[in-house]
Amino acid sequence: MAATEHQQERRIFAVVVDNEPGVLARVIGLFSGRGYNIESLTVAEIDPTGHLSRITIVTSGTLMVLEQIKAQLGRLVPVHRVSDLTWEGPHVERELVLVKVAGGGARRIEALRIADIFRARVVDSTHRSFVFEVTGSTEKIDAFIDLMRPLGMTDLARTGVVAIARGAEGM
Question: What are phi and psi of 78, to 5 degrees?
């Protein structure tokens, strides 16, 4: 067996499903029932008249496991389409985070300086805290959080990854 068959790869799956109760539970059940991990999960309605939602799942595994995940997702009854955005071609992926940083003096000034470097927006401000909004790659978000921790980060909320294929064609 080749060494690459055992290497872990990160994949982003975009899954179009019926927007009805229990669909997300079935998708999550597929992962938990087989011991697969979900690193990020986002869900939103994409077609209110067609009652369709899009689930974006970030997961990791060997090539064989990832192919099994894609095939098993495609067999679920409420699933209309499964795309492996990582494998099928160029794509754009982003994540959003809200980070609350409390403190004053030099730490406050440093937090604002770092936020400017990361193109973070201040979406709330008090005399003792800021809430920053940052969008970008998971790596960018992780780096921003790591720099804000020692400056008084008290809370954060992440959206998880959203992704879409590049080019003119839709899902």
Answer: -80, 5
Answer yes or no: is pLDDT of 3 > 90.
no
Q: What's the Cα-to-Cα distance from 162 to each of 105, 114, 119, 158, 165, rounded to whole Å?
A: 36, 24, 19, 11, 11
Rounded CA gap, 51 and 35, in Å?
Answer: 30
Q: Are 117 and 125 in contact (CB under 8 A)?
A: no
71 phi/psi in degrees, rounded to 5: -65, -45
Query: What is the bridge-based pairing of β-strands 91-102 and 129-136?
Result: antiparallel
Token pair, residue 61, equals 């595994």
Distance CA 59, CA 41 (A): 9
Contact 81, 2 (CB under 8 A): no
Among the residue ranges 62-66, 111-115, 117-121, 150-154, the one predicted with the least confidence is: 62-66
Alpha helices in the chain (DSSP H): 23-34, 63-75, 85-88, 105-117, 138-148
3-state SS, residue 133: strand
pLDDT in tens, 79-93: 999 999 999 989 999
Size of the chain, expressed as the number of residues it contains: 171
- What is the value of pTM for the model shown? 0.86
SS3 4: helix
